[in-house]
Design goal:
The protein is an alpha/beta fold and 127 residues long. 53% of the residues lie in helices and 13% in strands. It has a 5-stranded parallel sheet with strand order 3-2-1-4-5. α1 (7-14) packs across α2 (18-27) and α1 (7-14) packs across α3 (38-51). The longest helix has 14 residues, at 38-51. The chain is globular, with a radius of gyration of 14 Å.
């Protein structure tokens, strides 16, 4: 089975947080996919946590090393922009990309983002 993973889940999985461990338990042996902006968004999440003093300098670097081990297939999303635009009233473009991919693939979306889960309850799975 396929599972879309968003940056909120991915970052916390990589950092082995409590929430990340619960999210990791949902991965199973699923084929993991994400929009092609996942790498940049995970780096942005790590940067924010680091600037707020929540991470030691080495933690993001260790997480980045582990990122490829997750085996997440990143999907080009340019063909999906009209569907992303249609969700503009409820979701940011970044979040809409995850939702649109999950709907197109007919699979759930693993997210730790409560706002995203509330905006797309038809496809978002939270641990």
């Amino acid at each position: 089975m396929t599972l879309v993973v968003d940056a909120s889940a991915c970052a916390e999985i990589l950092l082995n947080t409590q929430r990340g461990l619960r999210a990791a338990a949902k991965l199973g042996d699923h084929h993991l996919i994400a929009p092609d902006h996942l790498t940049a968004e995970v780096a942005s999440v790590m940067r924010g946590w680091s600037l707020r003093g929540h991470l030691a300098d080495a933690e993001p670097l260790q997480a980045f090393s582990a990122f490829h081990q997750l085996g997440i297939e990143q999907v080009a999303m340019s063909d999906f922009l009209p569907a992303v635009w249609a969700l503009r009233h409820n979701l940011t473009a970044y979040d809409a990309l995850y939702v649109v991919l999950a709907r197109a693939a007919g699979c759930p979306l693993l997210s730790l983002d409560a706002r995203l889960a509330a905006a797309a309850p038809d496809c978002v799975v939270t641990p």
